[in-house]
């Protein structure tokens, strides 16, 4: 990939959003037919929306600027009565990272269900928490799930659970929305067509700007009626884009060119995870058996004095000894690895389309070097939990 400055080579594993558009995307962006999409006249957007609807087995789809807007629109359409309630996992993107937009802009009460490590929650818990017709209660209207689940480490939701939840929602008059920002990663991992994964869902969002390398854009899919309402909401939220084919063109290429390659990032994630596990350092652990897709979570031992943030700072520095040892590029540069932390003890490395085998190798050398150094410098009593 990766950005290089005068003295360092940067391997950016912060997110699968850091990718640049491919050559084919740039070509399509310059050469695609355009029109005013608010009038429904952009042929490239129309083509993208039909393609997404077919891919997801839904009647219709809508191109929107971001995953956050796609999720917000879904909540606002499903919860269109004042006093509505939407359920989401406590680790979901909708709850944790969207500024409470559902409440802020939609007037919707977001209620959380305890996520389990696999990204699911107890359907029995949802059942208990559903409101009735008592006049003190809000109106339970929808449930949101996330596939793959980001904070749970890119996990693919067990399909039996999604199917059971879908039945439950239908039986109880609830809409089921899937935040499928990384749905195509779930399809690649499970070998199941995306349309099958989302069959029980009334609406689904996907992002072209995550692992798929497009510069911008998401889509929302559902029934004709749902998308008609969603189109109105998108306009109200300022998401009605005019000659949006410029960016939709890249999204079409993302589906054709990059989606079939997602499994390469999954393989590289596995190489990284197994290497870290193979170091057998008491300070750092990875759940390799729970690794499904492109996100590797490294846990810093709870009783170690070390914090995830300090690990990130160290990965972003190059010391002299590194450039004389394994942690250097063929040009004798040092290597910086960028990552993010989810909390004080969890580091996230995300593999993506712009990371090739050489980048991975350099990142691994650097991570091994830094992890060994920090493990030695931060001794702790493993038994003292
Ligand atoms: C699971 C998930 N949903 C939604 C979003 C929001 O997407 P956007 O950044 O396009 O608003 C993200 C962003 O990283 C995400 O990881």
Automatic annotation (TrEMBL):
Pfam families for this protein: Beta_elim_lyase (PF01212)
Q: Any idea where the Aromatic amino acid beta-eliminating lyase/threonine aldolase domain is?
A: 12-298
Which cofactor(s) are needed, names only?
A: pyridoxal 5'-phosphate
Matching InterPro entries: ArAA_b-elim_lyase/Thr_aldolase, Low_specificity_L-TA-like, PyrdxlP-dep_Trfase, PyrdxlP-dep_Trfase_major, PyrdxlP-dep_Trfase_small
Tell me which positions the record assigns to the signal sequence.
none
What GO biological process, any one, is recorded here? Answer: L-threonine catabolic process
Q: Which key words tag this protein in UniProt?
A: Lyase, Pyridoxal phosphate
Any one Gene Ontology MF annotation carried by this entry is: L-allo-threonine aldolase activity
Report one GO cellular component.
cytosol
Q: Which residues carry this modification: N6-(pyridoxal phosphate)lysine?
A: 210
- PANTHER family found in the cross-reference section: L-THREONINE ALDOLASE (PTHR48097:SF9), L-THREONINE ALDOLASE-RELATED (PTHR48097)
Record family assignment:
Belongs to the threonine aldolase family.
- Name of the protein: L-allo-threonine aldolase
Q: Which organism is it from?
A: Papilio xuthus
Protein encoded by which gene: LOC106118812
